[in-house]
Write a structure and sequence with these properties.
The strands form 2 sheets. Strands 3-4-5-2-6-7-1-10-8-9 form a 10-stranded mixed beta sheet, with helices on both faces. The longest helix is centred in the middle third of the chain and has 17 residues. It is α/β, with parallel strands linked by helices.
Length: 262
Amino acid sequence: DIINCLKLAKRIIMRNQPESGKIKQILKKSKEYPSFFAKSFLIGKDGRPLNLEPQQRYFVDDKTPFRVFFASRRSGKSVALSVDILHKLFFNTDFNIIVLAPSLKQSKEFANVFGDLIDRSPMIRSSVTVDNKMEKKLANRSRVSFFTAGGSSGKKEDSSVVGSSPDVLYADELQSIGDETLGTILPAAVGQRKQMQIIYAGTPRQRSGTFYEAVSNAEYITEWYNDKFMQVQNPSGRFSLHQFKITETDEDGNVLLSRSPR
């Protein structure tokens, strides 16, 4: 349970250190900063504490309820979203999180990244009470479920998200989820939870639609490589945009700069 999880955290983090409230300080800072939570409680693929890259860190530490992670592949998007989800699960009770993906394949791929992160991290793993591939639940009764944008028939009316009453809705690879489908899911979900948080992730493919509008009309924008940190972009906007462009190109489309962290 959570108590045993924290005891294990204390043994690992406090090894050879005087107590003196250190564990409370670590928990307090971890609750305040998800990036610190990742470094203190989660283990990366290399077997070391998970140190997030800049674009991941600024995204997870943003406390605004409506966020967009505008990033392409190889930007660490899935790991950043997984940390964000785990942090919310760990520090909230009776919390319900839905992760929406365009297809069953993409939903399973994300669930695998999320599950692998838990399996590598004993302090989190010990608090898991339900460990299904597409659903995880912690001892504090908070849970995350992985859904597709449509049911087996592919019709928007079949979406399994409608009626789930999430506290937080993550829409991954949003550019591949049609606006017609979102038009069914979002009003139903928001109507059930007036304080629901919404997080979009992916790369807009066209200059129209829900995703493009969220990006182009974002209230704040963060581009750490351009020294933009929560800079006001549109005072009447709703979302906080975290933009990480892997490449910069010239007018002819030639790559001038690559920021791929992989």
